[in-house]
Structure of CRYD protein:
Amino acid sequence: FDPRHYLGTHCYGFPKTGPHRLRFLLESVKDLRQTLKKKGSTLVVRKGKPEDVVSDLITQLGSVSAVVFHEEVREI
């Protein structure tokens, strides 16, 4: 979770991530983790800037062959 998406980010006067969206995201992540656990896997969830968190995870894991991500579309 990138804190920049939850703290002080506003677009057209509305919070980018309000309480209802945040609840939906948290419930979705919880459900995904439970589904993966039933299949013998897990989900790593971290809070921080992705450019820092991903780098730290790669260092912790030691052997990473690929990193996949998406970039949010930004309005002009």
